[in-house]
Amino acid sequence: MAVTVKNKTVFITGAGAGIGRGAALLFAKEGAKVVATDVDMSGLEETQTLVKQAGGDILILQHDVTSEEQWIAAYAQAKERFGGIDVLVNNAGIYIIAPVTEITLETWNRLMAINVTGVFLGAKHVVPYLAERKGGAIINLSSIAGLRGSTGHALYGASKGAVRIMTKDLAAELAPQNIRVNSVHPTYVKTAMADYAEKTLGVSADELGRHLNPLGRLADVADIANMIVFLAADESAYLTGSEFVVDGGGTSVFTPR
Fold first, then answer.
1. Catalytic residue positions, numbered
2. Whole-angstrom Cα distance, residue 86 to residue 17?
3. Topology of 9-189+221-239 in CATH?
4. What is the pLDDT of residues 80-131, one digit of tens each?
5. What digits encode the pLDDT tens for the residues 61-78?
6. What is the value of pTM for the model shown?
7. Is 10 helix (H, G, I), strand (E, B) or coil?
8. What residue spans define the domains of the chain?
9. How far is the C-alpha of 38 from the C-alpha of 44, rounded, in Å?
């Protein structure tokens, strides 16, 4: 089945690497216009090169998702360049594994500011742009950590659980304006976050894959990008307030190994 996102303007945070970059590239290949933001400008420049090589149209912006002023400015620049916004992908986030007794208040507040407040600010300020287009889509990146408990995940899991429920609240609130809001819940993906987990937990990527799901592997970036693009497309017009788990069956199937 084809996905229809051609000529939509898609705003993606955390697009300097990983899932954000993968989504930006896939949207561009499907004919969407991409606004890619990140705090990492060098990463964004690499994303821009890849998108242009694929024939896509892209605007890159350095952007701290914890700053309300920067959200307002970034959206204004997106509209100036492309005439409006149709889709927001709230992807930016950081990952910390630590026992609750070792988490400082400063660390807690920093992660929550990026992972939760950033999602709130993005949604808050994109609504007028989506409403101007008579509707649109917001896709929030949560995690399987937002669905179940894990050792060392009190902080990260709390942030992703908040994103999960915020998504449902926004879906209820914004439906009258034809704005759909859904969350995506990946397992470990082959990105820097999985590299960090390997080091912190002392296990290899292969071991993580074997133990996490019946398919026996970590997710590829494309596995998540495909879901994000589908949720932005016209073909998902009846989907809102839902959580889409991309985890190889890990949260629903028990396979002892």
1. 156
2. 22
3. Rossmann fold (3.40.50)
4. 999 999 999 999 999 999 999 999 999 999 999 999 999 999 999 999 999 9
5. 999 999 999 999 999 999
6. 0.94
7. strand
8. 9-189+221-239
9. 7
